[in-house]
Write a sequence for this structure.
């Protein structure tokens, strides 16, 4: 079949990405307006796609105690005061009702004898979330939402006024493109990883922290449509168990277990004593790297204090969310591992742990008319996690439903034409350039010049300028990528999206001439935090193929200030 | 390679347009070729386990790539209705660790507010009177079956099955049955069935009414032992006896009375089986009953789970969890709810699709559960609460097990058993695999009594074999299962550990399909043109709380060669 045999579909609300936020948005919309036609376009299969594919063991944003304002205070402190207070607060006030939604889906929560949630910290409660995604998907399907699985969106479509009015989908199983028009489009495609070199070689190279199949398509599509992005330079790097890249919170939160260096010293406590406060998330990573630099590495989480019951609970928690580390912990079944080595993960772009993503308003509207963003794709509000993603989905849907029904917009024929043209490029070129080769080149550039894990996440101006020029060349060359199978075609789209995001990321890194969030964003040439100039957001847009960067204040109306050139 | 595909277990998902693994993988990494799953690019796998959890054949497992670890264990998983079972195998394939974690909340407490869908049933079809309605109606096979009577293979001879709830029979009962066997069947052995019933064989047409009359006079009933109705309610053999177990006998009585009072009970689409297990070991096979109540006792706290809509048949299908934290008073209403759904929704045109599990398959698990909840509400409103549950306080323990070859117990042995029970104040329960468990406070004394009893002593040993009646009695049988069992008992070492199940035809009455070693009767024409009796041999089935089918080890082994074949099997099967 010729993939250019284009099928036409239409719907009221098109949700791109049926992950955490996307599925919940669809469910909320259908619940509030049963007659509405809601369509999810999902790259994989909504039962097990995105960050939740493995399952989860905790709700990381639930207010066990404290108010939404306390939550904002924590998020601000952890992110050195550059966050969107309005967005964070709006999420904070809905977190616990989102936990109730999870329970309503049928996810079991372990409880204390008194019936309270088991909390691991003031903002985190345990859950048996292995089936969270399937349960969510079942609810979505039975509510009457149309889920188009194996249908990655590749370009947004616009009407004659430049408003977003649908998308071009690639239906992999039918090997066909289709045009779907809608009254509004919601981007829920999550963040992006695979931009930096993975931590592991060979067969383990996809053992990343962030979901490797989230290539940032939504962000790339938004950029191509002129949407404004924020804070790409605040990459997220997770402190993880070495090699198997499993969360370390599971080892430490609520267990009383601590990080230690090779000599057994609890360096995080030492730093906390020195600073007289709790460490921020990025400092836990920063000081781990410092131990390495001082020759006191490797670093560990020491779990020898766990009794049998505690260890069993640990295994259970991991099976719920990162099962393969159990193979590592129980490598010798008679002597379970007692010291678990830790390291930083690959840097990724996401707005769920970090705050890279679309620049949105309180209704989760992007700067382009007709386009919403929620979840890890939406920027400005870090530490939202699943409940925050759900809350954003709800807010976006509420706004959409409050708008008058102006009927589906029609996509301009020329727009469809050019989208198809670009999207089908890999089918037309005849070359042996494989997307995996291009991706490895991309990852090498980013790793070495833009602060990858082997560079201790550090970079500086001249390296970034090199990265900029190499990436421009790579983007040119990558137009020769070819695809023979539907899987290849999907992967070439991933690769082009990653290159575009890398280019924007490099511009952001160049623009922030300070070090605000060590490790997430470290400039060796500007090693200090500069509140005078950079207590601000770095935002970007694409205009006529060029990336422009600006600075916006941290309080409404977030005034736009031009930046001097790097 | 991190994802391992066991090509033997993978069946390519049969006729599905996409394999489950292919459909689910978030990285789109699977395709199928020559009917088997295949990974497109192993290095692109995230280790998310979605495929492992989705594969119904448990064909997939994950190990860490050698680039990052020397660990060489494999992890696999199986999704159950309300929990997930994780298994860790070592490189030789031995199971080294296992754990299960809850993953879905099932309807518990059963207090769903919605209204009942179905109206109470009024059934007008023939309603037999207890206890043996059929004396006058030999022509009506349906009524005959309902009263526990089947025609034997030999024309003019009958089989009478009687129900022994929970297999609990006291000394007087054993004596009575032995006497009746002598009086009416010329001493034909009593057959212990796998549902804790007892069967009389070789009854002539003239004797049948007399036997039935005598049985009724002694308080036994065959009503509901066969046919499309509520069958004998089974209880795990230790019920109310094993320490740390729940005594379900009162609950079972209440359920039986409630369901027998339901008008449609004798005109169900097919049989309906209920079991009760007194502890989490689930010795009463909850997953292959239409309803299986399982108690769990932890720190003297009892919690009961209801599993249902499973059954064995030629293709076993395990049940799903219908309710958790069941309150004792709800047990009769829950059972009635399921029975009513079965009565109204069960398939009455195709007997092969007529069990409760097929209703569930047709509706889908979720709709089935919703219907069940509604039906329960209306039942609960009509019924008095069931009796409370008690922890067993018998002070008894299992003293020994009598291993009854072919399930055939001589009247003399039954008498000897009765004598021993009286002497040492012990209890006997018929097990579900041709065994009788004996419980007593003084286990040493019982054991000594059994050892010194010449009729019982031989029953203390023996390999675990169950064979269905086969050509000895059953009209469907194609091979002689008893001959096979005797051969195996004679030629297998006494310490042969794997349970063996022998069925005389593909109906599989002895559960051969889920046995560690299963024999299913087959006929084959030899090179000389003669038809030979033999068996298809299956291995690797599981009979425990989570049954699973075995795989064919040999398509046909002649009866005379089975002992030799099975003796070498552990070496043959990896
Ligand atoms: C390993 C890991 C563990 C985590 N653990 C926890 C935890 O324990 N507790 C907690 O609260 N939070 C946790 N989080 C965070 C939380 O899971 C995320 O913040 C959240 O799931 C993000 O939701 P999302 O909808 O934005 O993205 P996702 O759920 O990732 O969904 C994105 C979806 O978009 C699809 N998609 C991508 N490209 C396209 C395209 N071109 N067209 C169509 N669809 C596309 C993807 O297939 C995917 O389904 C964890 C995250 C990770 C990665
Ligand atoms: C007249 C011939 C038959 C005889 C003598 C016979 C005998 C038995 C016996 C003794 C048992 C175990 C005891 C019990 O359930 O109480 C049994 C179980 C069983 N029978 Fe038969 N049977 C016969 C016909 C059939 C037929 C025709 C079928 C299939 C349509 C069948 C299917 C089964 C199954 C599946 C079981 C297992 C029950 C379970 O789910 O636990 N049988 N049979
Ligand atoms: S799901 Fe299992 S049985 Fe089906 S094709 Fe995949 S591996 Fe084979
Ligand atoms: S583990 Fe996940 S990513 Fe890997 S093959 Fe299975 S489904 Fe795909
Ligand atoms: S151990 Fe088995 S026999 Fe004993 S009560 Fe428990 S389930 Fe019944």
């Amino acid at each position: 079949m010729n993939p250019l045999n284009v099928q036409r579909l239409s719907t009221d609300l098109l949700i791109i990405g049926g992950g955490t936020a996307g599925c919940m948005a669809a469910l909320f919309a259908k619940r509030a307006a049963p007659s509405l036609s809601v369509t999810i376009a999902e790259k994989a299969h909504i039962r097990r796609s995105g960050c939740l594919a493995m399952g989860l063991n905790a709700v990381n944003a639930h207010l066990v105690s404290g108010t939404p304002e306390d939550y904002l205070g924590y998020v601000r402190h952890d992110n050195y005061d550059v966050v969107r207070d309005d967005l964070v607060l709006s999420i904070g006030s809905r977190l616990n009702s989102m936990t109730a939604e999870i329970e309503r889906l049928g996810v079991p929560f372990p409880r204390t004898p008194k019936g309270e949630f088991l909390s691991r910290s003031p903002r985190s409660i345990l859950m048996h979330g292995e089936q969270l995604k399937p349960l969510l998907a079942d609810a979505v399907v039975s509510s009457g939402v149309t889920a188009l699985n194996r249908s990655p969106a590749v370009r947004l479509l616009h009407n004659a006024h430049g408003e977003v009015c649908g998308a071009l989908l690639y239906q992999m199983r039918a090997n066909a493109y289709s045009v779907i028009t809608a009254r509004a489009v919601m981007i829920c495609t999550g963040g992006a990883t695979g931009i930096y070199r993975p931590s592991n070689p060979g067969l383990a190279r996809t053992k990343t922290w962030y979901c490797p199949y989230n290539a940032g398509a939504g962000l790339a599509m938004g950029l191509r449509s002129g949407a404004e992005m924020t804070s790409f330079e605040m990459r997220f790097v997770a402190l993880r168990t070495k090699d198997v890249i499993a969360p370390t919170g599971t080892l430490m939160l609520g267990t009383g277990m601590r990080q230690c260096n090779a000599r057994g010293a609890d360096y995080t406590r030492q730093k906390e004593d020195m600073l007289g406060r709790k460490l921020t998330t990025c400092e836990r990573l920063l000081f781990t790297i410092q131990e390495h630099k001082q020759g006191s590495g490797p670093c560990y989480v020491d779990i020898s204090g766990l009794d049998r019951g505690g260890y069993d609970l640990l295994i259970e928690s991991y099976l719920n969310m990162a099962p393969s580390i159990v193979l590592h912990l129980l490598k010798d079944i008679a002597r379970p591992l007692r010291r678990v080595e830790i390291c930083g993960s690959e840097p990724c772009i996401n707005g769920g742990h970090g705050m890279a993503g679309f620049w949105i308003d309180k209704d989760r509207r992007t700067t382009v008319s007709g386009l919403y963003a929620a979840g890890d794709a939406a920027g400005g509000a870090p530490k939202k996690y699943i409940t925050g993603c759900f809350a954003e989905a709800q807010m976006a849907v509420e706004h959409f439903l409050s708008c008058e029904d102006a009927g589906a917009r029609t996509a301009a024929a020329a727009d469809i034409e050019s989208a198809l043209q670009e999207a089908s490029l890999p089918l037309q070129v005849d070359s042996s350039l494989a997307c995996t080769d291009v991706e490895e080149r991309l990852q090498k550039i980013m790793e070495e010049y833009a602060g990858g894990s082997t560079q201790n996440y550090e970079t500086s101006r001249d390296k970034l300028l090199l990265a900029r020029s190499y990436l421009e060349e790579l983007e040119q060359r990558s137009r020769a990528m070819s695809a023979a199978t539907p899987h290849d075609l999907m992967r070439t789209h991933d690769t082009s999206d990653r290159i575009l995001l890398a280019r924007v990321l490099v511009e952001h890194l160049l623009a922030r001439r300070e070090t605000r969030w060590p490790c997430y964003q470290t400039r060796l040439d500007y090693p200090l935090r500069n509140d005078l100039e950079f207590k601000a957001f770095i935002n970007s847009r694409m205009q006529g193929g060029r990336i422009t960067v600006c600075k916006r204040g941290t309080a409404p109306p977030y005034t736009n200030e031009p930046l001097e050139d790097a | 390679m991190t994802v391992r595909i066991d090509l033997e277990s993978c069946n390519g998902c049969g006729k599905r347009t996409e394999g489950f693994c292919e459909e689910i993988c978030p990285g789109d990494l699977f395709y199928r070729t020559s009917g088997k799953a295949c990974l497109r690019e192993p290095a692109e796998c995230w280790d998310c386990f979605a495929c492992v959890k989705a594969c119904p054949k448990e064909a997939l497992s994950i190990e860490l790539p050698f680039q990052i670890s020397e660990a060489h264990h494999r992890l696999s998983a199986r999704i159950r209705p309300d929990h997930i079972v994780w298994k860790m195998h070592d490189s030789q394939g031995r199971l080294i660790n296992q754990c299960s974690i809850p993953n879905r909340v099932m309807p518990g407490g059963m207090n769903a507010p919605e209204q009942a869908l179905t109206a109470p049933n009024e059934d007008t079809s023939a309603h037999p009177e207890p206890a043996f309605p059929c004396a006058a109606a030999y022509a009506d096979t349906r009524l005959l079956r309902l009263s526990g009577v089947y025609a034997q293979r030999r024309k003019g001879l009958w089989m009478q099955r009687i129900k022994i709830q929970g297999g609990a029979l006291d000394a007087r009962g054993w004596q009575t049955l032995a006497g009746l066997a002598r009086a009416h069947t010329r001493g034909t052995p009593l057959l212990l069935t796998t549902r804790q019933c007892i069967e009389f064989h070789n009854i002539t047409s003239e004797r049948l009414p007399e036997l039935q009359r005598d049985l009724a006079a002694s308080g036994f009933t065959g009503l509901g032992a066969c046919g499309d109705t509520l069958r004998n309610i089974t209880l795990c053999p230790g019920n109310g006896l094993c320490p740390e177990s729940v005594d379900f006998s009162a609950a079972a009585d209440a359920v039986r009375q409630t369901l027998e009072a339901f008008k449609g009970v004798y005109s169900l689409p097919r049989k309906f089986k209920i079991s009760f297990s007194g502890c989490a070991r689930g010795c009463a096979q909850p997953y292959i009953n239409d309803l299986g109540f399982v108690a769990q006792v932890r720190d003297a706290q009892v919690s009961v789970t209801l599993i249902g809509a499973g059954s064995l048949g030629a293709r076993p299908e395990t049940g799903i969890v219908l309710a958790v934290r069941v309150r004792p008073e709800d047990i009769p209403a829950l059972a009635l709810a399921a029975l009513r759904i079965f009565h109204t929704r069960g398939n009455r045109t195709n007997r092969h699709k007529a069990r409760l599990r097929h209703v569930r398959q047709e509706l889908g698990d979720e709709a089935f559960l919703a219907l069940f909840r509604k039906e329960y509400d209306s039942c609960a409103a009509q019924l008095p609460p069931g009796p409370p549950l008690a922890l067993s306080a018998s002070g008894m323990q299992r003293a020994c097990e009598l291993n009854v070859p072919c399930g055939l117990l001589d009247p003399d042995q039954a008498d000897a058993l009765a004598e021993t029970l009286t002497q040492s104040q012990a209890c006997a329960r018929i097990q579900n695999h041709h065994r009788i468990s004996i419980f007593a406070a003084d286990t040493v004394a019982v054991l000594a009594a059994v050892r010194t009893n010449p009729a019982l002593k031989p029953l203390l040993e023996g390999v675990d074999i169950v064979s269905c009646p086969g050509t000895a009695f059953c009209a469907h049988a194609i091979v002689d299962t008893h001959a096979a069992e005797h051969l195996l008992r004679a030629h297998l070492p006494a310490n042969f550990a794997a349970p063996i199940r022998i069925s005389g035809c593909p109906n599989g009455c002895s559960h051969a399909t889920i046995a560690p070693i299963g024999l299913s009767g087959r006929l084959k024409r030899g090179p000389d043109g003669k038809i030979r009796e033999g068996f298809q041999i299956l291995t690797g089935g599981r009979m425990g709380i989570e049954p699973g089918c075995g795989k064919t080890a040999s398509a046909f082994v002649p009866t005379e060669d089975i002992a030799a074949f099975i003796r070498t099997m552990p070496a043959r099967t990896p």
The two ends of chain A are 49 Å apart (CA to CA). The mean pLDDT of chain A is 94. Residues 250 and 261 of chain A are 19 Å apart (CA to CA).
